[in-house]
Amino acid sequence: MTTLPNLEDMPNVVLSNIFEKTGISGILKFRKVSRSFREFLEVSPMNSGIIQMNFSVFRDLISLKFYEKDSENLEISGIQYSKSGENNCEIRYGNSGKALKDSEYSNRFFEDLKIILTYQKSIINILQFVCPVPFFISNYQEFVRKFQKTLENFKLKVKIFHMQHSNFEDIFGILKNLDSREIEEISIFSMTAEQSNNKEIDNWVNLDQWKMAKRLKIRNVSMDQSIIDFLHFEEVHIELRTISANDMILVAQKFLTSPIPKDYCIEYLDFPDESKFSDFLGPQNVVNEENSAKIVFQSTEDENYLRFCRCFLANVEENS
Amino acid sequence: MSSTEQGTSSAAPAEPTTAPESAAAPEVPESFYYVHGKDKVVHKVSAGALQHSALIHGMISNLGYTEEQAKANPFPFENIDGDILQMVVDWCNQHKGKPTPPEDTNLPKQKEKLFDLVLAVNYLEIKELLTYCCKQVAMMVKGKSPEEIREIWMIPTDAEDEAAEKEAKKRAGKEAAGETAAAAGDAK
Hints:
The complex is a heterodimer of chains A (320) and B (188).
Chain A lengths: L11 H22 L1 H9 L6 E8 L3 E9 L4 E11 L3 E6 L2 E5 L4 H14 L5 E7 L9 H12 L6 E8 L2 H8 L9 E6 L10 H4 L3 H5 L2 E5 L15 E8 L2 H13 L5 E8 L3 H8 L5 E3 L4 E5 L6 E5 L2 H8 L1
Parallel strand pairs in A: 1-6, 6-7, 7-8, 8-9, 9-10, 10-11, 11-14
Antiparallel strand pairs in A: 1-2, 2-3, 3-4, 4-5, 12-13, 13-14
Helix pairs in contact in A: 1-2, 3-4, 4-5, 8-9
Chain B lengths: L1 H23 L7 E5 L5 E5 H4 L3 H7 L6 H6 L2 E2 L5 H13 L16 H14 L2 H15 L4 H7 L5 H30 L1
Parallel strand pairs in B: 1-3
Antiparallel strand pairs in B: 1-2
Helix pairs in contact in B: 1-7, 5-6, 6-7
Protein backbone atom coordinates (compact mmCIF):
# COMPACT_ATOMS: atom_id res chain seq x y z
CA MET A 1 0.00 0.00 0.00
CA THR A 2 1.40 3.37 -0.86
CA THR A 3 -0.72 5.55 1.40
CA LEU A 4 1.12 7.19 4.24
CA PRO A 5 -0.15 5.92 7.55
CA ASN A 6 -2.29 8.15 9.71
CA LEU A 7 -2.59 6.69 13.16
CA GLU A 8 -6.07 8.10 13.51
CA ASP A 9 -7.27 5.65 10.82
CA MET A 10 -6.50 2.63 12.96
CA PRO A 11 -9.53 0.61 14.10
CA ASN A 12 -10.68 1.48 17.62
CA VAL A 13 -9.74 -1.89 19.04
CA VAL A 14 -6.18 -1.36 17.80
CA LEU A 15 -6.02 2.15 19.22
CA SER A 16 -7.19 0.90 22.62
CA ASN A 17 -4.54 -1.78 22.50
CA ILE A 18 -1.84 0.79 21.66
CA PHE A 19 -2.93 3.22 24.37
CA GLU A 20 -2.96 0.49 26.97
CA LYS A 21 0.65 -0.14 26.08
CA THR A 22 1.72 3.48 26.15
CA GLY A 23 0.38 3.70 29.69
CA ILE A 24 -0.92 6.80 31.34
CA SER A 25 1.94 8.97 30.10
CA GLY A 26 1.03 8.03 26.54
CA ILE A 27 -2.64 8.67 27.18
CA LEU A 28 -1.92 12.13 28.56
CA LYS A 29 0.29 12.82 25.56
CA PHE A 30 -2.14 11.54 22.95
CA ARG A 31 -4.85 13.76 24.35
CA LYS A 32 -2.68 16.65 23.22
CA VAL A 33 -1.99 15.21 19.77
CA SER A 34 -5.38 15.70 18.21
CA ARG A 35 -9.03 16.27 18.87
CA SER A 36 -10.07 12.89 17.55
CA PHE A 37 -7.68 11.13 19.92
CA ARG A 38 -9.01 13.22 22.77
CA GLU A 39 -12.56 12.30 21.87
CA PHE A 40 -11.64 8.66 21.48
CA LEU A 41 -9.86 8.58 24.82
CA GLU A 42 -12.83 10.19 26.49
CA VAL A 43 -15.25 7.45 25.48
CA SER A 44 -13.03 4.40 25.54
CA PRO A 45 -12.84 2.47 28.77
CA MET A 46 -9.21 1.32 28.73
CA ASN A 47 -7.08 0.75 31.78
CA SER A 48 -3.81 2.57 32.32
CA GLY A 49 -2.73 -0.04 34.88
CA ILE A 50 -0.77 2.10 37.31
CA ILE A 51 0.46 -0.05 40.20
CA GLN A 52 1.83 2.62 42.46
CA MET A 53 1.18 6.35 42.81
CA ASN A 54 3.20 8.70 44.95
CA PHE A 55 2.22 12.29 45.58
CA SER A 56 4.77 14.61 47.13
CA VAL A 57 3.66 18.08 48.09
CA PHE A 58 6.18 20.84 48.61
CA ARG A 59 5.80 24.57 48.71
CA ASP A 60 4.34 25.65 45.35
CA LEU A 61 5.22 22.31 43.86
CA ILE A 62 3.40 19.01 43.45
CA SER A 63 5.24 15.98 42.24
CA LEU A 64 3.46 12.92 40.97
CA LYS A 65 5.30 9.69 40.43
CA PHE A 66 3.69 6.60 39.00
CA TYR A 67 4.85 3.07 38.53
CA GLU A 68 3.51 1.11 35.62
CA LYS A 69 4.12 -2.44 34.64
CA ASP A 70 4.22 -3.55 31.05
CA SER A 71 4.80 -7.22 30.24
CA GLU A 72 7.91 -7.50 32.36
CA ASN A 73 9.42 -4.18 33.20
CA LEU A 74 8.50 -1.79 35.91
CA GLU A 75 8.46 1.71 34.58
CA ILE A 76 8.62 4.76 36.74
CA SER A 77 7.68 8.14 35.43
CA GLY A 78 6.74 11.40 36.98
CA ILE A 79 5.23 14.78 36.38
CA GLN A 80 6.05 17.89 38.33
CA TYR A 81 3.76 20.90 38.59
CA SER A 82 5.20 24.05 40.05
CA LYS A 83 4.48 27.69 40.38
CA SER A 84 6.73 29.94 38.35
CA GLY A 85 6.52 33.67 38.71
CA GLU A 86 3.33 35.32 39.84
CA ASN A 87 0.65 33.64 37.70
CA ASN A 88 2.51 31.09 35.68
CA CYS A 89 3.02 27.42 35.98
CA GLU A 90 5.68 25.01 34.87
CA ILE A 91 5.07 21.37 34.09
CA ARG A 92 7.99 19.02 33.81
CA TYR A 93 7.72 15.58 32.36
CA GLY A 94 10.91 13.55 32.16
CA ASN A 95 13.50 15.72 30.48
CA SER A 96 11.03 18.03 28.83
CA GLY A 97 9.24 20.93 30.36
CA LYS A 98 6.58 23.40 29.47
CA ALA A 99 5.70 26.81 30.86
CA LEU A 100 2.10 27.91 30.88
CA LYS A 101 1.18 31.55 31.23
CA ASP A 102 -1.67 32.68 33.48
CA SER A 103 -2.12 29.24 34.79
CA GLU A 104 -2.29 28.00 38.34
CA TYR A 105 -0.08 24.96 38.89
CA SER A 106 -2.39 23.10 41.26
CA ASN A 107 -5.36 23.57 38.92
CA ARG A 108 -3.31 22.01 36.13
CA PHE A 109 -2.36 19.18 38.45
CA PHE A 110 -5.95 18.43 39.46
CA GLU A 111 -7.11 18.56 35.85
CA ASP A 112 -4.53 15.95 34.94
CA LEU A 113 -5.33 13.96 38.06
CA LYS A 114 -8.95 13.62 36.99
CA ILE A 115 -7.82 12.23 33.65
CA ILE A 116 -5.35 9.87 35.27
CA LEU A 117 -7.95 8.52 37.69
CA THR A 118 -10.46 8.03 34.87
CA TYR A 119 -8.18 5.47 33.27
CA GLN A 120 -7.23 3.72 36.45
CA LYS A 121 -9.40 0.64 36.49
CA SER A 122 -7.08 -1.90 38.06
CA ILE A 123 -5.89 -2.07 41.65
CA ILE A 124 -3.18 0.30 42.81
CA ASN A 125 -0.83 -1.58 45.11
CA ILE A 126 0.41 1.51 46.91
CA LEU A 127 -1.09 4.97 47.12
CA GLN A 128 1.19 7.32 48.95
CA PHE A 129 0.99 10.93 50.09
CA VAL A 130 4.02 12.61 51.52
CA CYS A 131 5.06 16.09 52.44
CA PRO A 132 8.86 16.22 52.43
CA VAL A 133 9.02 19.79 53.76
CA PRO A 134 7.64 21.06 57.11
CA PHE A 135 3.92 20.86 56.48
CA PHE A 136 3.17 24.42 57.65
CA ILE A 137 5.27 25.90 54.83
CA SER A 138 3.85 23.50 52.25
CA ASN A 139 0.47 23.59 50.51
CA TYR A 140 -0.29 20.14 51.87
CA GLN A 141 -3.61 20.83 53.58
CA GLU A 142 -5.04 22.65 50.61
CA PHE A 143 -3.78 19.84 48.40
CA VAL A 144 -5.43 17.21 50.56
CA ARG A 145 -8.75 19.06 50.57
CA LYS A 146 -8.77 19.32 46.79
CA PHE A 147 -7.68 15.73 46.46
CA GLN A 148 -10.58 14.57 48.61
CA LYS A 149 -12.97 16.47 46.39
CA THR A 150 -11.51 14.96 43.23
CA LEU A 151 -11.59 11.48 44.67
CA GLU A 152 -15.33 11.65 45.37
CA ASN A 153 -16.09 10.76 41.75
CA PHE A 154 -13.88 7.69 41.68
CA LYS A 155 -13.89 4.59 43.81
CA LEU A 156 -10.20 4.01 43.64
CA LYS A 157 -9.04 0.46 44.32
CA VAL A 158 -6.02 0.59 46.61
CA LYS A 159 -4.26 -2.12 48.57
CA ILE A 160 -1.83 -0.14 50.68
CA PHE A 161 -2.75 3.38 51.67
CA HIS A 162 0.09 5.39 53.10
CA MET A 163 -0.26 8.98 54.13
CA GLN A 164 1.52 11.62 56.10
CA HIS A 165 -0.90 13.94 57.80
CA SER A 166 -1.23 16.84 60.13
CA ASN A 167 -4.65 15.86 61.43
CA PHE A 168 -6.95 12.87 61.19
CA GLU A 169 -9.49 14.74 59.12
CA ASP A 170 -6.99 14.75 56.24
CA ILE A 171 -7.11 11.01 56.12
CA PHE A 172 -10.80 10.42 56.67
CA GLY A 173 -11.81 12.29 53.49
CA ILE A 174 -9.48 10.20 51.36
CA LEU A 175 -9.95 6.87 53.08
CA LYS A 176 -13.73 6.92 52.77
CA ASN A 177 -13.45 7.31 48.99
CA LEU A 178 -11.29 4.24 48.45
CA ASP A 179 -12.91 0.95 47.48
CA SER A 180 -13.41 -0.86 50.77
CA ARG A 181 -13.25 -4.31 49.15
CA GLU A 182 -9.62 -3.93 48.15
CA ILE A 183 -8.00 -2.11 51.01
CA GLU A 184 -5.46 -4.18 52.94
CA GLU A 185 -3.27 -1.77 54.80
CA ILE A 186 -3.78 1.66 56.32
CA SER A 187 -0.49 3.21 57.25
CA ILE A 188 -0.42 6.80 58.44
CA PHE A 189 2.24 8.98 59.93
CA SER A 190 1.55 12.17 61.81
CA MET A 191 3.76 15.15 61.03
CA THR A 192 2.83 16.74 64.32
CA ALA A 193 3.36 14.67 67.43
CA GLU A 194 0.41 16.07 69.34
CA GLN A 195 -3.01 16.36 67.81
CA SER A 196 -5.91 18.19 69.30
CA ASN A 197 -8.58 16.57 67.18
CA ASN A 198 -7.99 13.02 68.16
CA LYS A 199 -11.69 12.24 68.22
CA GLU A 200 -11.93 12.03 64.45
CA ILE A 201 -10.86 8.41 64.66
CA ASP A 202 -14.25 7.63 66.25
CA ASN A 203 -15.74 8.21 62.80
CA TRP A 204 -13.27 5.87 61.18
CA VAL A 205 -14.29 2.80 63.11
CA ASN A 206 -17.64 2.85 61.29
CA LEU A 207 -16.03 3.02 57.87
CA ASP A 208 -16.10 -0.13 55.76
CA GLN A 209 -12.51 0.61 54.81
CA TRP A 210 -11.58 0.39 58.49
CA LYS A 211 -13.48 -2.85 58.95
CA MET A 212 -12.07 -4.49 55.83
CA ALA A 213 -8.40 -3.56 56.22
CA LYS A 214 -6.05 -6.20 57.57
CA ARG A 215 -3.14 -4.09 58.73
CA LEU A 216 -3.10 -0.79 60.55
CA LYS A 217 -0.15 1.41 61.35
CA ILE A 218 -0.67 4.75 63.05
CA ARG A 219 2.68 6.29 63.83
CA ASN A 220 3.84 9.28 65.77
CA VAL A 221 0.58 10.16 67.47
CA SER A 222 -0.83 8.77 70.70
CA MET A 223 -4.55 8.15 70.78
CA ASP A 224 -7.24 7.90 73.44
CA GLN A 225 -8.96 5.09 71.63
CA SER A 226 -9.80 1.80 73.25
CA ILE A 227 -7.75 -1.13 72.03
CA ILE A 228 -11.02 -3.00 71.42
CA ASP A 229 -11.56 -0.99 68.23
CA PHE A 230 -8.42 -2.53 66.71
CA LEU A 231 -9.03 -6.19 67.37
CA HIS A 232 -10.21 -7.11 63.88
CA PHE A 233 -6.81 -6.30 62.34
CA GLU A 234 -4.18 -8.93 61.69
CA GLU A 235 -1.38 -6.49 62.28
CA VAL A 236 -1.50 -3.41 64.42
CA HIS A 237 1.12 -0.83 65.22
CA ILE A 238 -0.36 1.95 67.34
CA GLU A 239 0.40 4.29 70.18
CA LEU A 240 -2.16 4.64 72.94
CA ARG A 241 -2.16 7.04 75.84
CA THR A 242 -3.54 4.60 78.36
CA ILE A 243 -4.20 0.91 78.29
CA SER A 244 -5.93 -1.13 80.96
CA ALA A 245 -5.34 -4.69 82.10
CA ASN A 246 -8.93 -5.68 81.26
CA ASP A 247 -8.59 -4.48 77.68
CA MET A 248 -5.21 -6.13 77.29
CA ILE A 249 -6.57 -9.42 78.62
CA LEU A 250 -9.16 -9.26 75.84
CA VAL A 251 -6.37 -8.75 73.33
CA ALA A 252 -4.41 -11.70 74.70
CA GLN A 253 -7.50 -13.89 74.68
CA LYS A 254 -8.16 -12.94 71.09
CA PHE A 255 -4.61 -14.03 70.26
CA LEU A 256 -5.16 -17.36 71.97
CA THR A 257 -8.57 -18.12 70.51
CA SER A 258 -8.65 -16.58 67.05
CA PRO A 259 -6.40 -16.99 64.00
CA ILE A 260 -6.90 -13.37 63.00
CA PRO A 261 -4.43 -11.38 65.11
CA LYS A 262 -0.84 -12.02 64.09
CA ASP A 263 1.42 -9.19 65.05
CA TYR A 264 0.48 -6.36 67.37
CA CYS A 265 2.83 -3.69 68.56
CA ILE A 266 1.16 -1.43 71.08
CA GLU A 267 3.09 1.46 72.47
CA TYR A 268 1.67 3.27 75.42
CA LEU A 269 2.24 6.06 77.86
CA ASP A 270 0.41 4.69 80.83
CA PHE A 271 -0.57 1.23 82.03
CA PRO A 272 -1.82 1.67 85.63
CA ASP A 273 -2.69 -1.93 86.38
CA GLU A 274 0.08 -3.59 84.43
CA SER A 275 0.82 -6.16 87.14
CA LYS A 276 -2.69 -7.56 86.79
CA PHE A 277 -2.00 -8.23 83.13
CA SER A 278 1.41 -9.78 83.83
CA ASP A 279 -0.25 -12.10 86.34
CA PHE A 280 -2.78 -13.08 83.73
CA LEU A 281 -0.10 -13.91 81.18
CA GLY A 282 2.04 -15.81 83.62
CA PRO A 283 5.81 -15.52 83.83
CA GLN A 284 6.43 -18.02 81.04
CA ASN A 285 4.81 -15.66 78.53
CA VAL A 286 6.50 -12.48 79.59
CA VAL A 287 9.96 -11.70 78.36
CA ASN A 288 11.59 -8.55 79.58
CA GLU A 289 14.00 -7.64 76.86
CA GLU A 290 17.02 -5.72 77.91
CA ASN A 291 17.47 -2.16 76.58
CA SER A 292 14.36 -2.15 74.50
CA ALA A 293 12.11 -2.28 77.57
CA LYS A 294 9.60 -4.51 75.88
CA ILE A 295 7.26 -7.09 77.20
CA VAL A 296 6.97 -9.83 74.67
CA PHE A 297 4.07 -12.15 74.82
CA GLN A 298 4.05 -15.07 72.50
CA SER A 299 1.17 -17.44 72.26
CA THR A 300 1.65 -21.10 71.43
CA GLU A 301 1.25 -20.51 67.72
CA ASP A 302 4.44 -19.08 66.30
CA GLU A 303 2.71 -16.68 63.98
CA ASN A 304 0.73 -15.05 66.74
CA TYR A 305 2.99 -12.47 68.19
CA LEU A 306 2.10 -9.73 70.59
CA ARG A 307 4.57 -7.12 71.70
CA PHE A 308 4.31 -4.27 74.16
CA CYS A 309 6.78 -1.47 73.90
CA ARG A 310 6.53 0.00 77.32
CA CYS A 311 7.95 3.37 78.38
CA PHE A 312 8.87 4.16 74.82
CA LEU A 313 6.51 7.05 74.34
CA ALA A 314 7.23 8.53 77.75
CA ASN A 315 10.92 8.57 76.90
CA VAL A 316 10.25 10.35 73.67
CA GLU A 317 8.20 13.00 75.38
CA GLU A 318 10.83 13.62 78.03
CA ASN A 319 13.52 13.98 75.41
CA SER A 320 11.59 16.36 73.24
CA MET B 1 1.53 -8.51 31.43
CA SER B 2 -1.34 -8.80 28.99
CA SER B 3 0.79 -10.33 26.29
CA THR B 4 1.90 -13.24 28.43
CA GLU B 5 -1.66 -13.82 29.57
CA GLN B 6 -2.88 -13.85 26.02
CA GLY B 7 0.04 -16.03 25.03
CA THR B 8 -0.76 -18.77 27.49
CA SER B 9 -4.50 -18.57 27.11
CA SER B 10 -4.49 -18.96 23.37
CA ALA B 11 -1.63 -21.43 23.30
CA ALA B 12 -3.45 -23.65 25.75
CA PRO B 13 -6.36 -24.66 23.49
CA ALA B 14 -3.90 -25.43 20.71
CA GLU B 15 -2.34 -28.22 22.74
CA PRO B 16 -5.30 -30.51 23.32
CA THR B 17 -6.10 -30.53 19.60
CA THR B 18 -2.57 -31.24 18.39
CA ALA B 19 -1.14 -33.26 21.27
CA PRO B 20 -3.68 -36.10 21.43
CA GLU B 21 -3.59 -36.36 17.66
CA SER B 22 0.14 -36.95 17.58
CA ALA B 23 -0.02 -39.24 20.60
CA ALA B 24 -2.98 -41.39 19.58
CA ALA B 25 -2.62 -41.35 15.82
CA PRO B 26 0.85 -40.26 14.74
CA GLU B 27 0.16 -41.53 11.24
CA VAL B 28 -2.48 -38.89 10.41
CA PRO B 29 -0.78 -36.20 8.33
CA GLU B 30 -1.31 -32.59 9.19
CA SER B 31 -3.88 -30.79 7.08
CA PHE B 32 -2.91 -27.78 5.02
CA TYR B 33 -4.80 -24.81 3.71
CA TYR B 34 -3.99 -22.18 1.15
CA VAL B 35 -4.19 -18.42 1.36
CA HIS B 36 -3.30 -15.59 -0.95
CA GLY B 37 -3.13 -11.83 -0.72
CA LYS B 38 -3.51 -9.02 -3.21
CA ASP B 39 -0.58 -10.33 -5.29
CA LYS B 40 -2.32 -13.73 -5.73
CA VAL B 41 0.78 -15.56 -4.52
CA VAL B 42 -0.57 -18.67 -2.81
CA HIS B 43 0.90 -19.75 0.54
CA LYS B 44 0.49 -23.26 1.85
CA VAL B 45 -0.01 -23.13 5.60
CA SER B 46 -0.67 -25.89 8.11
CA ALA B 47 -3.89 -25.85 10.13
CA GLY B 48 -1.75 -25.74 13.27
CA ALA B 49 -0.06 -22.51 12.20
CA LEU B 50 -3.37 -21.02 11.09
CA GLN B 51 -4.82 -21.52 14.55
CA HIS B 52 -3.18 -18.24 15.52
CA SER B 53 -5.72 -16.46 13.34
CA ALA B 54 -9.15 -16.60 14.98
CA LEU B 55 -10.71 -15.56 11.67
CA ILE B 56 -9.14 -18.33 9.57
CA HIS B 57 -9.49 -20.87 12.36
CA GLY B 58 -13.24 -20.14 12.43
CA MET B 59 -13.40 -20.51 8.65
CA ILE B 60 -11.64 -23.87 8.45
CA SER B 61 -12.89 -25.56 11.59
CA ASN B 62 -16.18 -26.75 10.07
CA LEU B 63 -15.04 -27.02 6.48
CA GLY B 64 -13.83 -30.62 6.33
CA TYR B 65 -11.91 -29.98 3.09
CA THR B 66 -9.83 -32.69 1.55
CA GLU B 67 -6.30 -31.77 0.47
CA GLU B 68 -7.49 -31.31 -3.11
CA GLN B 69 -10.44 -29.18 -2.15
CA ALA B 70 -8.22 -26.98 0.02
CA LYS B 71 -5.74 -26.56 -2.80
CA ALA B 72 -8.48 -25.68 -5.26
CA ASN B 73 -10.01 -23.12 -2.91
CA PRO B 74 -7.35 -20.83 -1.47
CA PHE B 75 -8.68 -18.18 0.90
CA PRO B 76 -8.42 -14.83 -0.82
CA PHE B 77 -7.38 -11.84 1.28
CA GLU B 78 -7.50 -9.14 -1.36
CA ASN B 79 -7.15 -6.39 1.23
CA ILE B 80 -3.73 -7.61 2.35
CA ASP B 81 -0.54 -6.91 0.43
CA GLY B 82 1.49 -9.92 -0.60
CA ASP B 83 4.59 -9.06 1.42
CA ILE B 84 2.49 -8.37 4.52
CA LEU B 85 0.67 -11.69 4.18
CA GLN B 86 4.07 -13.35 3.79
CA MET B 87 5.15 -11.79 7.10
CA VAL B 88 1.99 -13.03 8.77
CA VAL B 89 2.35 -16.56 7.39
CA ASP B 90 6.01 -16.67 8.46
CA TRP B 91 5.08 -15.56 11.95
CA CYS B 92 2.32 -18.18 12.23
CA ASN B 93 4.70 -20.91 11.07
CA GLN B 94 7.40 -19.84 13.48
CA HIS B 95 5.01 -19.81 16.41
CA LYS B 96 3.06 -22.91 15.50
CA GLY B 97 1.98 -24.78 18.61
CA LYS B 98 4.40 -22.84 20.76
CA PRO B 99 3.65 -20.51 23.62
CA THR B 100 4.46 -17.05 22.40
CA PRO B 101 7.28 -15.16 24.14
CA PRO B 102 6.51 -11.84 25.86
CA GLU B 103 8.53 -9.89 23.28
CA ASP B 104 8.91 -10.06 19.52
CA THR B 105 11.71 -7.98 18.11
CA ASN B 106 11.40 -9.12 14.49
CA LEU B 107 8.63 -6.75 13.56
CA PRO B 108 9.16 -4.19 10.80
CA LYS B 109 10.66 -0.93 12.00
CA GLN B 110 9.36 0.95 9.02
CA LYS B 111 6.15 2.65 10.04
CA GLU B 112 4.32 2.09 6.73
CA LYS B 113 4.96 -1.66 6.89
CA LEU B 114 4.11 -1.81 10.56
CA PHE B 115 0.89 0.08 9.92
CA ASP B 116 -0.18 -2.33 7.19
CA LEU B 117 0.82 -5.28 9.32
CA VAL B 118 -1.33 -4.00 12.20
CA LEU B 119 -4.35 -3.68 9.93
CA ALA B 120 -3.84 -7.16 8.46
CA VAL B 121 -3.27 -8.77 11.85
CA ASN B 122 -6.30 -7.05 13.29
CA TYR B 123 -8.39 -8.26 10.36
CA LEU B 124 -7.12 -11.82 10.68
CA GLU B 125 -7.61 -11.65 14.46
CA ILE B 126 -4.15 -12.81 15.48
CA LYS B 127 -4.25 -11.66 19.05
CA GLU B 128 -0.64 -12.19 20.13
CA LEU B 129 0.86 -10.67 17.02
CA LEU B 130 -1.47 -7.70 17.35
CA THR B 131 -0.23 -7.23 20.89
CA TYR B 132 3.38 -7.19 19.69
CA CYS B 133 2.58 -4.77 16.90
CA CYS B 134 0.74 -2.40 19.23
CA LYS B 135 3.62 -2.56 21.62
CA GLN B 136 5.95 -1.63 18.79
CA VAL B 137 3.77 1.38 17.92
CA ALA B 138 3.71 2.35 21.60
CA MET B 139 7.51 2.12 21.68
CA MET B 140 7.74 4.35 18.62
CA VAL B 141 5.86 7.17 20.34
CA LYS B 142 7.72 6.85 23.60
CA GLY B 143 9.71 9.94 24.48
CA LYS B 144 8.18 11.85 21.57
CA SER B 145 6.35 15.12 22.01
CA PRO B 146 2.75 15.49 20.77
CA GLU B 147 4.13 17.56 17.87
CA GLU B 148 6.57 14.81 16.90
CA ILE B 149 3.83 12.19 17.11
CA ARG B 150 1.70 14.29 14.78
CA GLU B 151 4.55 14.45 12.31
CA ILE B 152 5.45 10.77 12.41
CA TRP B 153 1.90 9.52 12.07
CA MET B 154 0.55 12.18 9.70
CA ILE B 155 -1.98 13.53 12.15
CA PRO B 156 -3.39 16.97 11.43
CA THR B 157 -3.34 19.56 14.19
CA ASP B 158 -6.58 20.76 15.76
CA ALA B 159 -6.34 23.95 13.67
CA GLU B 160 -5.87 22.02 10.43
CA ASP B 161 -8.69 19.73 11.46
CA GLU B 162 -10.99 22.66 12.09
CA ALA B 163 -10.00 24.33 8.83
CA ALA B 164 -10.74 21.13 6.92
CA GLU B 165 -14.05 20.81 8.70
CA LYS B 166 -14.98 24.39 7.94
CA GLU B 167 -14.05 23.84 4.32
CA ALA B 168 -16.21 20.72 4.18
CA LYS B 169 -19.11 22.57 5.78
CA LYS B 170 -18.75 25.44 3.38
CA ARG B 171 -18.78 23.05 0.48
CA ALA B 172 -21.79 21.24 1.87
CA GLY B 173 -23.50 24.58 2.41
CA LYS B 174 -22.77 25.64 -1.15
CA GLU B 175 -24.03 22.36 -2.52
CA ALA B 176 -27.17 22.62 -0.44
CA ALA B 177 -27.65 26.20 -1.61
CA GLY B 178 -27.03 25.03 -5.18
CA GLU B 179 -29.59 22.31 -4.73
CA THR B 180 -32.21 24.63 -3.32
CA ALA B 181 -31.46 27.10 -6.09
CA ALA B 182 -31.80 24.30 -8.59
CA ALA B 183 -34.96 23.14 -6.89
CA ALA B 184 -36.30 26.68 -6.96
CA GLY B 185 -35.32 26.84 -10.61
CA ASP B 186 -37.20 23.59 -11.22
CA ALA B 187 -40.27 24.94 -9.45
CA LYS B 188 -40.29 27.94 -11.71
